[in-house]
Each structure stands twice: as C-alpha cells, then as structure tokens.
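Workshop exercise sheet. Pairs work together: one partner reads the sequence aloud, the other fills in the structure field after running the prediction. Swap roles for the next sheet.
Pair: D.N. / O.F.
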Amino acid sequence: MRAKSKNIKSNLKKVDTHRIKKKEYDELPELTDKMFSQATYKVGGVTKTAPRSRGAQKSPTKVALSLRLPKEVIDYFKSEGSGWQAKMGDALLAWIKSHPHRHSHRKA
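Structure field:
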C-alpha cells in the first residue's frame, strides 16, 4: 500500500500483516436475505441495481447437462448473440420435428 501512505496516520505494515482469526469471524452477524434486499450495490463507486436471481422453476421444462459439441457449433450459436442456448434448443427441436421416430421405442 504505497499511494499517499504519508497522509494516513495508521500503521499500515501492522494492518497489512494482520491475519483475521476465527474469533473475529464469529463476531460478525450472519447476513440475511432481508439484509441483501436492502443493500446498495456499488461498483467502482457507482450505485448499481441489485443483481437478479432466479428462483426454482415452478414446473421444470429444461434439464441441465454436460455435453461435448464441436467448437464450430458452439462458435456459430454464440456468434448469434444473446439467447444462443435457446436458439440451439430451438434448432434441435426443429430437427426432431422434421425427423420423427419410425418406431414407438428404441433399444439403448
């Protein structure tokens, strides 16, 4: 900490070397949802709107999974901009509709 340290009437070396102990953490109050809802968010000194969070889906319609696809496929959809995952899902649904199963069930 070098910037204007001459103007600070504190022992910066002592502050910089201090390690927070478990007891100090125990003294802090637990943060609640109410506290977060009343918080003012600042980034670089500028007040920002609170970050949004999504709740659980009321009736889940999508499934999270890990999938390996060719880089070209991902690059193509990402180049489409915002909503690229939804566009990829729409493309897959369109393919399914144009390629119906020939049998009622398939063997794995």
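Discussion prompt: The first strand starts at residue 41 and ends at 43. What would you look at next?
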